[in-house]
Design a protein that fits this description.
DNA binding, metal ion binding, 10 helices, 7-stranded mixed beta sheet, Transposase_HTH_dom, 2 domains
Length: 254
Amino acid sequence: MFVYPSGVDVSSSALRFLSAKLRRRRRELGTRWRRLSAGRQALLTLAHLRNGHPYAQLAAGFGIGTTTAYRYITEAVELLAALAPSLAEAARTASSKAFVLLDGTLLPIDRIAADRPFYSGKHKKHGMNVQVLADPSGRLLWASPALPGAVHDVRAAHEHGIIGALADAGVKCWADKGYRGAGGTVRVPCWGRWEALSTGQKAVNRSHAKIRALVEQAVAALKSWRLLRRLRCSTTRITSLVQAVLCLHLASSD
């Protein structure tokens, strides 16, 4: 296998943040020596999450075994996932905003037609459903644990407790028609065929669409980590990967 220099388009603040957390963990564990320093382990993890490179390629580039690369990355991902904000923390942050934006996105996975629970009829592909909360400027605030792609957005929002958390915090929420009937403080467009809507209802829907469109920036920020664009791991690990990416994104933003 050939090895060549490459780059990772991640801010240095994310690297420093993860390096510091890994050094603290090593001190807690009493680790004396490892093949990679905390900084190199952080860089290995960022390269995997940001570029989506497989373990074998990363192991060759960093001069370690494939098993060691997997173990180092898994350790860092679990550490980051534990640091990601909870829904309650996100709701407290949202309470200082005028409103929040809610949307669901599908993270594609490599599954076959027999895996029906993971097949999204809306997107016509297999994947995992992740709910995203963004502030009025479209900045990512929170991402939910992953559910099978067959789960509809409104059901996912209820299962995660998003509707109740926002209602308890008194935060208004803009969402699309997929959340019709959600209740609480969630606002959705007027329902019905476009030609059947009144002039006032059409104006409301146009205004609603302009406001809600900013949530796509938060979804794009999540998927700028290329590993999430095509997941080839076990579905049980996807939630940890999403939470790790969320933690790194917020650390970079701060």
